[in-house]
Amino acid sequence: NVQESESENKLDGETASDSESKSEFGGLPPVPTSDDTPEVLNRALSNLSSRWKNWWVRGILTLAMITFFFIIIYLGPMVLMMIVMCVQIKCFHEIITIGYNVYHSYDLPWFRTLSWYFLLCVNYFFYGETVTDYFFTLVQREEPLRILSKYHRFISFALYLTGFCMFVLSLVKKHYRLQFYMFGWTHVTLLIVVTQSHLIIHNLFEGMIWFIVPISCVICNDIMAYMFGFFFGRTPLIKLSPKKTWEGFIGGFFSTVLFGLLLSYVMSGYRCFTCPVEFNNDTNSFTVDCEPSELFQLQEYNIPLVLQSVVGWKTVRMYPFQIHSIALSTFASLIGPFGGFFASGFKRAFKIKDFANTIPGHGGIMDRFDCQYLMATFVNVYLASFIRGPNPSKLIQQFLTLRPDQQLHIFNTLKAHLVDKGMLGSLED
């Protein structure tokens, strides 16, 4: 009898421990979601089968989203930063709503209020760190910003500590375990959504190309994997996503690598994409203008002898960034989809189809950005490991804010170092 009851509980991968958790959380699917397809599209596509109707709905909305993406790119990096923040808030809302619908059935206090309060605290911390790091001269010029920057981490900690004490005061007898579940739920959501979105902003400030190319590679891989899977898919890829196929996975990989090479070639020739975002004291505005680094200057590479007979060329002119784009597009194609698989497992655990029904045919915003957050982390680590070095302009900015005696000490130390290296003498000659 025990074995029979256990086998009944193992529905769709659910174990006995899952059933216990389900009973503790109320036993109901927290968020019923459905595609809210516009009536105009429903009427226009009414004669098609559900499979082809979904294909057209997804295609039309995908083109609309790509168009919107081009518009915000045209508006510049600061608008892009605001869009990233809006996306972050919406993704946080979608995940927290799932937890809230479970939590609300017990009528326990402050979960939603505390969740949004912690979001505010974490955003204050990250945005403060970002502004101080990238726009140091602006911060030092304004007295209120200088004070906030000086005590930024203490203020952030005090704000978080206030929320922590509020959570402890909200604990209700007989529901401690559930409340700690939801406390953990909020913090894991913050870790996944907020931290990753700020990594996206850091990538953006290094140059729009580090923002656009990775995001575009994920979008391309998503589209091409769907297209190859739709028309040629026969072999299931993973049980978490039954519609994903090996044909789509492989087709998406080769298409994305080729797309990354072409997009990188086009964008590497424009300073507005390759230069980092900086604050100009003379114009009191944010600028994107610089002398392109070696990454974005055409260089000649020798083609391996094995390939020379095939392509008929001995050398090829490429931007060095295109070589890096191969790494980015490869990650977007091979590892990026695991962010989607992770989200699929999460949705199946709560028996929901999508995180929300914000975008017809696509689900919620989180359904579209599940792979993007994993990609953002990789790009940030890649930049720190292989690309980014000490920034002379930032060092000079900080040097100029020191006291005169401190500046003189650093000057003498640097002068002695250059004399020992033999560089200062050669410059004087």
UniProtKB/TrEMBL annotation:
What PROSITE patterns does this protein map onto?
Answer: CDS
Superkingdom to which the source organism belongs: Eukaryota
Q: Which Pfam families does this chain map to?
A: CTP_transf_1 (PF01148)
Leading EC class: transferase
Q: Which reaction does it catalyse?
A: 1,2-di-(5Z,8Z,11Z,14Z)-eicosatetraenoyl-sn-glycero-3-phosphate + CTP + H(+) = 1,2-di-(5Z,8Z,11Z,14Z-eicosatetraenoyl)-sn-glycero-3-cytidine-5'-diphosphate + diphosphate; 1-octadecanoyl-2-(9Z-octadecenoyl)-sn-glycero-3-phosphate + CTP + H(+) = 1-octadecanoyl-2-(9Z-octadecenoyl)-sn-glycero-3-cytidine-5'-diphosphate + diphosphate; 1-octadecanoyl-2-(5Z,8Z,11Z,14Z-eicosatetraenoyl)-sn-glycero-3-phosphate + CTP + H(+) = 1-octadecanoyl-2-(5Z,8Z,11Z,14Z-eicosatetraenoyl)-sn-glycero-3-cytidine-5'-diphosphate + diphosphate; 1-octadecanoyl-2-(4Z,7Z,10Z,13Z,16Z,19Z-docosahexaenoyl)-sn-glycero-3-phosphate + CTP + H(+) = 1-octadecanoyl-2-(4Z,7Z,10Z,13Z,16Z,19Z-docosahexaenoyl)-sn-glycero-3-cytidine-5'-diphosphate + diphosphate
The EC designation for this entry is 2.7.7.41
Recorded GO cellular component terms are:
endoplasmic reticulum membrane
Q: Name one GO biological process term.
A: CDP-diacylglycerol biosynthetic process
Q: What is its main location?
A: membrane
- Give GO MF terms, alphabetically: phosphatidate cytidylyltransferase activity
Q: Where in the cell is it found?
A: Membrane
The yes or no answer to whether the keyword Iron is present is: no
User: What pathway is this protein a component of?
Assistant: Lipid metabolism; Phospholipid metabolism; CDP-diacylglycerol biosynthesis; CDP-diacylglycerol from sn-glycerol 3-phosphate: step 3/3
TM ranges are: 110-127, 154-172, 179-201, 207-233, 245-267, 321-343
Keywords attached to this entry? Lipid biosynthesis, Lipid metabolism, Membrane, Nucleotidyltransferase, Phospholipid biosynthesis, Phospholipid metabolism, Transferase, Transmembrane, Transmembrane helix
State the annotated membrane topology for this chain.
Multi-pass membrane protein
Q: In its keyword annotation, does this UniProt entry include Transferase? A: yes
Stretches of Basic and acidic residues bias are at: 7-23
* Stretches the record annotates as Disordered: 1-37
Q: Which family does it belong to?
A: Belongs to the CDS family.
Name-wise, this protein is Phosphatidate cytidylyltransferase
